Amino acid sequence: MKNLASMMKQAQEMQSKMTEMQETLQDMEVTGSSAGGMCQVTLNGKGEARKLKIDPSLVTPDDAGVLEDLILAAFNDAKTKVDTEMREKMSELTGGLQLPPGMQLPF
Description:
This protein is an alpha+beta fold. It has a domain at 29-84: Nucleoid-associated protein YbaB-like domain (Ybab, Chain: A, 2-Layer Sandwich). Helices cover 53% and strands 17% of the residues. The chain is built from two helices and three strands; from the N terminus they run αβββα. The chain has a three-stranded antiparallel β-sheet. Helix 1 (2-27) packs antiparallel against helix 2 (64-94).
């Protein structure tokens, strides 16, 4: 019975740490860029867009398709960085706990 109580306590501690981590992710900002930094997208840790910065030299009517591609590339760069940061934080939180294939935290 002590083992079960210990497991429950650990689960509650982990849940508390996950809540803290989610708040940290909400406040974290990661910037992705393309075109040598001329196009930048900033996301929070949950992958929500916070900022978009476009160098004025990229804004020409003839190159709208290029600008769209640059924005997508910058967004995808930022999203990759957010995912990497989240995996690192989750690894710290779980202490290297190996989860079954396909299972990810947070659930």
